[in-house]
Input
Amino acid sequence: MIKTRSNKKIILLTGGGTAGSVIPLLAIAKVLRDYKSDCHFIWLGTNRGPERQLVEEAGIKFQPISAGKLRRYWSWQNILDIGRLIIGFLQANYFLNRIRPDLILSAGSFVSVPIAWAAKFYGIPVIIEQLDYRPGLANKLMAPLAKKILVTFAKSGRDYGRKAVWLGAPIRPDILQTVGDNPSLLWPFNGQRSIILIVGGGTGAAGINNLVVQQLSGLTELADIIHLTGRGKLGAKPQEHYQPLDFLNQAAMMAAYQAADIVVARAGLGTLIELAALKKVSLIIPMPASHQLDNAQAIKEAGAAIVVPEKDLVDGQLVRQLKQLLADKQKQVDLINNWPKAIKIASQSEIIQVFQEYL
Output
């Protein structure tokens, strides 16, 4: 059972399924905790995603609850997920009654929906973080219950009207800190070659992982490769100039970013926020037929990254794209300089201002 001290402000965080919906909330929690030490955070999330490890590493108590998914197409899983949503609502109601938080902050995902619904019964204010360019179904379902909706892109203000606050992208204050004098020393490379970090992601990892495996010999001729495959996903076997890993904690992930000359990644907003904050030269491969296409288009229009569909990177094209980018130093400079045009990074003072009335 979760027990909290009554003299603290209790903020309930919720979201999960992917690291992208977790890390921005952890960034906000870090800023608020540094600003006011009597803030106490608890996280309700899923048992299936990466959130538990990330949350507990941040020193926040984690409680799993049931989570379903509302699909906009027929699937037999919809029947089971109705049951999961009902169970999630009952669990959320139980924990809200016991915890009685002062505020609920959600980054979306379907685990948050029953929590937001249950919050209405207790009069607990809800704030939603709309990370992606296109609003998802979970956030649409929660929006009528929210006091504020924090948006990354100015365009999202039109989706939510008066409730929208253009905060920009929250980042952890320590994300910009250098990891040692030479972060490349953390990897089994000699530091004499360029390093390419390839982030397969979570649910969309298989497509990128397959590209890497199929073109590995060409990739290792270009550079040393750090390949984050995702948990339960397969890459190639470790070899000279190639290091596959299924998961990195936040500190190791920052070290990998800093070591990398180029990052290859999906277009999840959590990843794009980190790339923007660190101003990394990037090749973005959005997940096909997903909200990531809108995120990627916004980044492409700002000239902040090379964006290429997955289908156009087969038959050696991934190697060709990276070879061309490694050779074009002016292009790299232009991409770096355009990141601020693509994604606004929220300042600590802006984050505090949004939450001031609840602290």
